Amino acid sequence: MKHGAYYQGRCRNATIARWNGEKQCFVHFRTKFGEHFLESIKHEEDFSGFDCFKPDREVTFEETGLDQEININSAWGPF
User: Fold this and answer.
1) Which domain of life is it from (predicted)?
2) Tell me: the pLDDT tens digits for 32-46?
């Protein structure tokens, strides 16, 4: 995984996530009860019984279809 790179993959709440190599987790946009926020999630290899992100391939920001960058330093989550 490359620090700051975007990945297409799968988890319960996202298909695009960005890797934070310093914290060893992915960050993705999430919507819950109408609120939008960034959430961190572990890689599938670090599965701990909770949801994890399973990356399929690295993608460019343009390929993500997102209209804003994911800030990997401001995510909510336990990581």
Assistant:
1) Bacteria
2) 898 888 999 988 887
In this structure, what DSSP letter does residue 62 have?
A: H
Residues 6+ apart with CB under 8 A from 75: 20, 25, 27, 38, 39, 40
Average pLDDT for 22-27: 93
Length of the chain: 79
* Cα distances (Å, whole numbers) of residue 8 to 33, 34, 35, 78: 24, 24, 23, 22
CA 26 to chain centre: 4
Q: Which amino acid is at 8?
A: Q
